[in-house]
Automatic annotation (TrEMBL):
Organism: Cochliobolus heterostrophus (strain C5 / ATCC 48332 / race O)
Domain of life according to the entry: Eukaryota
One Pfam family cited in the UniProt record for this chain: Het-6_barrel
InterPro entries: HetReg/Transcr_Mod
Official protein name in the record: Heterokaryon incompatibility domain-containing protein
Amino acid sequence: MTGEPQKSKNLRLPSWVPDFGPRSITPISSFLPYHDLGESQRVFMTAGPDRSRSLSAIQFGDDPRTLILQGHLFDVVSQCGEKYPSSDDIGLAGHKNRPILDDWKNMAIKTQSEMYHSSNAKDDAFWRTILTDRQIEGLHFKENAGWNPAQRLPAKIEYIPPKTTKEERDLLQAMEKRQLCLNGRRFCITKKGHFCLLPPTVSKKDVICVLLGGEVPYLLRRTDDQSQDSYTMVGECYVHGIMDGEAVADILAGKDKADIFRLR
């Protein structure tokens, strides 16, 4: 499900079939070149560390175009920022990214959220969200260091959040040089106040869910108001605070029941 287009797909395929066209944006989930290392290489474990659980078994409906999965309906999209330009748009077309980031930051600062109790907490969560909590080559580790799986940001690290104007300028310059997950995506805030990075085609009232067996959360859209468990797949998400299994801990421990999602 990592092939995610910048525009709505116009294919005669179910929404959960990946689109690996030339304009697909950088996936949030991991790229695994060394299969022998398996799960240890994965950057995120949103559905927990064991992706082979029986709960994550794939099923199909009577209609083979319907994929049936279990998981947890986590939250609903409430606010959406403007789409961040792709790296090509910034470098070749001269599209400005700073005004968009400023608008995103204003969204984050103004939101009333129980998740982030201080301006410093909001600032930290904002930068970690737009960087998908990953270090930047050339800033946090050396450039051209050979293949290096995207490393998570530790609790304390330079530039996150930037403490001075110079640090913020250096951070933004490093971001512009890299094809990051924020390119082509939108900063959004959920109904509960979580900061997230979502696909460009996101709409308010789309739902964020954790699908058992998945590495990252997914954005789904209800097919109609009558079918409570019928959805179309919109794409991958980064949601700050749930990328290590926090949202499904009770389901995996047998303390809660999983939700059913029928993807069409």
